[in-house]
Inverse folding.
């Protein structure tokens, strides 16, 4: 799986991005910069496709400060134009509005401690998914402003599982990494000389403090990737992957409508 010609993949993806943007009558690309491997690889591909018309947006939202540092270092290392817009105040205002209108939800500890993990389980994911949806709105603002496409960072592993927020980080125009599993994205990152710290960082959507993909999914990307590419997995792992994929299939489809 990892024995691929990543130099050719890089060249082909740059050409693909350029064609998709041009076919849409647009001038460039806007990408969310999270400090993670997927956004780092995607932003660098876009910068190589459109050196003067790529914009990275760093959007902290009660986030790990280290992620912002990594995102800035990456952008500055490769000369990617970027903006930083902190969404924390807006997000907290949103939570306070929900709290004041719903007496059954007490978000005071979450808001004051800036710790979403402290929220009750029944509302934790609903609140966490507000973050990528706020980011999506901001990305499309800059896309509209500059006549750019919003370029997503979703990889094949995430798309298989539906492991993204509907109308959040799934609200995009194109997904260049959509045919590469996570381990292949790492191979491409090494080819492109992405910082080793970013390559080896625990994958996380940054939804709450301490959140990471493996703990939330309950499987490692190695298990997921080998099943997707080679069909190699024990029965329990295969069943779990297919169950998650089936429950999230709606995220990959247009809204259902009746056929009568």
């Amino acid at each position: 799986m990892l024995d691929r010609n990543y130099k050719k993949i890089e060249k082909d993806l740059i050409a693909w991005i350029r064609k998709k943007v041009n076919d849409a009558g647009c001038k460039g690309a806007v990408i969310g910069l999270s400090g993670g491997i997927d956004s780092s690889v995607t932003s660098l591909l876009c910068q190589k496709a459109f050196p003067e018309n790529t914009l990275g947006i760093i959007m902290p939202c009660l986030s790990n400060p280290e992620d912002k540092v990594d995102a800035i270092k990456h952008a500055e290392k490769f000369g990617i134009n970027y903006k930083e817009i902190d969404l924390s105040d807006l997000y907290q205002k949103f939570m306070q509005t929900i709290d004041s209108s719903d007496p059954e939800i007490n978000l005071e500890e979450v808001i004051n401690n800036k710790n979403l993990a402290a929220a009750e389980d029944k509302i934790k994911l609903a609140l966490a998914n507000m973050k990528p949806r706020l980011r999506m709105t901001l990305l499309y603002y800059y896309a509209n402003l500059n006549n750019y496409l919003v370029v997503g960072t979703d990889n094949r592993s995430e798309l298989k599982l539906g492991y993204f927020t509907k109308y959040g980080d799934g609200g995009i125009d194109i997904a260049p990494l959509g045919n590469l599993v996570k381990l292949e994205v790492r191979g491409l990152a090494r080819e492109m000389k992405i910082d080793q710290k970013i390559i080896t960082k625990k994958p996380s959507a940054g939804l709450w403090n301490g959140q990471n993909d493996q703990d939330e999914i309950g499987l490692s990307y190695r298990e997921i990737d080998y099943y997707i590419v080679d069909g190699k997995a024990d029965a329990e792992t295969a069943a779990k992957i297919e169950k998650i994929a089936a429950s999230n299939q709606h995220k990959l489809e247009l809204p259902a409508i009746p056929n009568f």
About this structure: The mean pLDDT is 90. The two ends are 45 Å apart (CA to CA). The CA atoms of residues 123 and 213 lie 19 Å apart. The beta strands are 28-33, 54-58, 81-84, 148-150.
